[in-house]
Amino acid sequence: MKKRACLIGGFDKQGLIDNKGIIHDYVVYFVEKLSEFCDVYFYTDNPICEEELAKVRPFTKYAAGHRYGRYDFGSWSLLIKEIGYDKLEQYDELILTNDSCFGPMFPFKEMFDKMDAQNLDAWSICGNKFLMSFFVVLNKKVFMHDDFKYFFDNIKEEEDKYVVIKKYEHGLNSLITENGFSTGLYISNQDVKSFYKKNKKDIHKKIKEVVPFWPRLFIRFSPNKIRLYEEDFVLPFFMHMPLLKKISLHVTTSVLPVYYRDLIKDNCDYPIELIDSFLEKSNSAPPAKPWPRIKEKIKDKLKRFMHDKKYRGDKIITRVFTIPIKSKKMDYKI
User: Fold this and answer.
1) Largest CA distance in the chain
2) Residues 157, 43: one domain?
3) Exposed (0-12), middle (13-18) or buried (19+): which is 208, by Cβ within 10 Å?
4) Residue 321 maps to a domain
5) Which of 176, 224, 236, 258 is the most exposed place for a label (fewest CB within 10 A)?
6) Backbone CA torsion sign across 200, 206, 209, 213
């Protein structure tokens, strides 16, 4: 069995408001299950007390946190400094992940067995044109490379979250590909497209079992690429993707989250009470009825038509009635 180190970046939005971060029960479960496959190191971007950290200490080699505002890449950078490369070199693989997901919905073993057999330098649970950074696995050739060390030594606070995505998530992908490392995905966009094509009837049957007729009229799938939000989040879920993004239940323009309990209970053994508890404590539970979500979906389409922003290359383009009126260049250099 490979020796793995797993770096988990944590964040509790409500904790910033209350100045007291919480490690929710779903995070403890996530950490515990990962600890069966790797040595876990945890750092949260929140003011946090020892009582909260004690929840994950039985399953971690290290757990700490304070507010620093550098997102997941900042957490991973701080953990790498804490561990040190001499100790990190003792591991075969390095996992970079965060607490933005519920899981495992399905056993991690299924995923690790499949990906271990491919002997890749770097892989992610899913991705489109790049490895999505909420769960990335790197082998020693990658994480001990000088470019990798320089990258994580130069993580800075950014004001725009999209800059973080372009500068660090895309930047890590560039680092991997430009150095010629082999990459792969547990679930690719082509996998989703093929899965939907082959299982369309069965997918709609499963949804029909939990969603009434008239709300189903507002459910549309776009399986040509991986989308972890909107209604499309259910496709990778039906494909046994082990993690479910929290935001998929928060998006107010999606109808399916209204029925999340039945969808999850009917298709996997994940303890649903962990999700219920988080949604209740964070005041973010979906409405009991679908109509508020449907109204938001209609309003969002109108709003995006009247005014929106598109990110293309190194530019942010502002559009009014789909007509470009302003362009701003962004700096993504590390």
Assistant:
1) 59
2) yes
3) exposed
4) no
5) 224
6) negative
CB under 8 Å to 260, separation ≥6 — which residues? Answer: 249, 275, 286
Mean pLDDT of 296-309: 68
- Are 57 and 198 within one domain? no
**Structural domain includes residue 314:** no
> Which amino acid appears at position 320 of this protein?
V
- Give the residues across from 110 on adjacent strands: none
The domain boundary, picked from 187, 210, 240, lies at 187
pLDDT digits (tens, 9 = 90+) for 207-234: 999 999 988 988 889 888 898 988 899 9
Same domain? 58 vs 97: yes
Q: Angle at the Cα of 48 (from 42 to 50), degrees rounded to 5?
A: 85
Does 332 score more than 60 pLDDT?
Answer: no
> In the chain, count of helices (H) and strands (E)?
17, 12
Q: Helices 260-267 & 272-281, crossing angle to 10 degrees?
A: 160
Note the pLDDT of residue 196. 95
Both structure tokens of 188: 């690719």
- Tell me the C-alpha distance between 198 and 155, whole Å: 43
Q: Which position has the higher pLDDT, 197 or 1?
A: 197
User: CB under 8 Å to 93, separation ≥6 — which residues?
Assistant: 2, 3, 4, 5, 38, 137, 138, 139, 140
Q: Which domain holds residue 263?
A: 189-303
